[in-house]
Amino acid sequence: MAELLVPAIAAVFVAALLAPALHRGLGDRSGILLGLVPLAACAAFLTLAPGVEAGQAVRVALPWAPSLGITLSFYVDGLSLLFLIVVSAIGTFIVWYAAGYLHGDPGLGKFYLYLLSFMGAMLGLVAADNLILLFIFWELTSITSYLLIGYYHNAAKSRAAALQALLVTGGGGLAMLAGLILLARIGGSYEISALLALPSGALTGDPLFPMALVLILLGAFTKSAQFPFHFWLPNAMEAPAPVSAFLHSATMVKAGVFLLARLHPLLDSHPWWTGIVAPIGAITMVTGVWLGLGQSDLKKILAYTTLSVLGTLTLLLGIGTSLAIKACLTYLLAHALYKAALFMAAGAVDHETGTRDVGVLSGLRKAMPITAAAALLGALSMAGTPLLLGFVSKEYFYKALLEADGPAYLWETLGVAASMAMFALAVTAGIRPFFGKPSETPKHAHEAPWTMFVGPVLLGISAVAFGILPGWVGDRLIGPASRAVLGDPAFQADLALWHGWNTALFLSIVTVAGGLVVYFVAPRLRAAQPLYSALAAVGPERGYDVALAGLLRFSAYQTRLLQSGYLRNYVLIIGIFTTGLVAWCLFDTPFEIDFARMVPPSVLGVGACLLIIAGAVMACLADSRFTAIVSLGVVGLCIAILFFLFSAPDLAMTQILVEALTVVLFVLAFYKLPLLRELSSGAARIRDAVLALGFGGVMTALVMVGFHFDAPAPRISNFMAEQSYPAAQGRNVVNVILVDFRALDTLGEITVLGIAALGIYAMLRLRSTGKGDS
Amino acid sequence: MKSLILETTMRVLMGLLLVFSIFLLLRGHNLPGGGFGGGLVAGSAFALKALASGTTSARSLLWFDPRTIIGLGLLVALVSGLFGAPYGLPFLTGLWDLTIFPVVGKLGTPLLFDTGVYIVVLGITTLIIFTLADEEDA
Fold first, then answer.
1. Does ipTM exceed 0.90?
2. Is A647 on the interface with B (CB under 8 A)?
């Protein structure tokens, strides 16, 4: 039922807003209740499934900012539906899990606010039809992920990791925005559904297409932690376990993969697609497991294997054959199930024993039997054992690599190597901690509460169920999703457990054998930390550190340069730039002075002008502050006379009032000001004089040009003068403009005035208490 | 810094200046004047009062803290813009009652907006001047 789509997504956001209040009222039990919201959303998404399976995509559009081409439009086809179901189902377990994991934490309400906001953003992201809407949800996931990674904000490491993730994914997001705008310009629409309806390869011929492609890939690669942007993901493990399980395995990091899959039909006919996407994916796949083998922290191992899987998915999308797409989506589903289960189990182990070191943990199966069973199922799926979904996905992965265009044997070798390491790491992280002799741990281990094992257990069971009945899940989820990614409505997934005695099966057997070898070699790699440190010293994270430090140094430098704190320097800089820029614009504007059109000079006007000049000169030459102020007062009053002469009584009146208030201010400040001193050297005075004369000259020239400029359209001032009484009931045009025609500007101005006054107040107060004098 | 002459003069001048400031505010829509000028005149009145009899008595005469006055003025200006909302009109649309009232003339939301400007300007001038003058006393 299509009408449930938007309310289901909105409900998650509403739940996020209610979470803090609910937690204050109900305590930790609020988590159980809040978990029902994503569960209901999941049920709502499931009602869309029959229609989507039959090939009828759901599209809902609400107007938002039509003048900008932004609509609140959603489009759910097989691909979106797969993600919607995975995100909301795993999200339900995560919400429950957090209730146990963060039990008694006073910040839990806030945590749910972030977590559910993230979930809503993720659901919106995968269901968005409008490209700008997609971008907004995309950035919202980055921001909420920042808050979630930095949840333990008292720890400096946690804050640094959060900032790193935000800068890397946010920066990539901006590149992606540029890419999406280019794509929309080339394709003539911001709606993904409209772009997908274009004939295949319709966009690739455009000269701007390569740029759009590269920018979009930057966004996807940073989000999905592809090499060389992979470093933020393992660092993000500073987050609480529910966050790692949700964002950094099953959902957010898959957003990049989702984007690549979503836009696959539009982008893949360009040669750069395979040329860039497949190698980057392969490098990430291998880098991930290589780095993972050197880790002894349970969560870090899982993070690096996630990295490797993201590489695998990217590689498969880069290859882009129908077999590869099917393998990619199966692998994605299998990974979401087992990795969320394993992360939750790892968090439970950490929570109950106080350590995550795989060198210490063993024999926990007696103390934590249920968690151990769930972790075992997850690890078996990750290792690719028959009868689990992980096995099915690995078979298709191998087959897709074998039948790839291009360097199929290279991909196959790398894929098998990565899978061997994956096997070893699955045993290390998911099986070894639970078997063998029970170990001494910082806390006395016991089973986690039900909230923390219900998710892993159910996910583990689904890994088995889907593994035994791959045909069912293939027809319901993988098939429709593949059809969407391929843009081929006739494609059938036909997942099967048994493919006969073929090369892929042979490679699976090789993988298990090789994996066992890697498992026994792995402790040596973990011991070889100097090697890893030496590689990290030249790795891309080093580049991030150097770039960030450089950026901070540069901003400190330019702040020191421009924000000197001396009023005279600011005036100087503003004066130089205004004069220079205006002069540059006027440089080749022809103008002649047409005296006939000017008002004939009056005695009063000329007199006032002469007094202004005299006052200005006096102020410059004065050797007492009092003389200078009085001279400036003469200038101000003569300007008021000029306003009167040119029939602007309002301006004249305001000018006089301001002059009067200036006198009052001067009287108040007079005693406190230091004695007038000669600060400027002779050369500086000449420089200032030149600048002042130049500024005056340029402004005079500007007025002259403006005076002779014949506007092509009727002047706005005429309109306002004519409409002042009939439209706004006022005869004083100046006032009508201020309070009616341009009232919004005035509102902004008085707001700024108020803020400035508060600033002045704060500065005066700080000085008088002696604080802030630095 | 008190002055007997100024203090005596201010007894008369204060009321006159305040009435004049309101006069400026009300005539502003058709003749020179308006909320900005009116607010400046009212601010000057309180500034003179502060000069004549010290900030403590000027503050008590003002009733509200200048910071509160700034906020109040912004609120008035903002609210004046919301009157059109029930009719689906854009923010800050001017609405008028065309009856001619004695003294005030026609009433409309732009006048309310201008009153907001008046209050903000009064708050700003008194905030700055009182703070400067406080420091003087200290």
1. yes
2. no
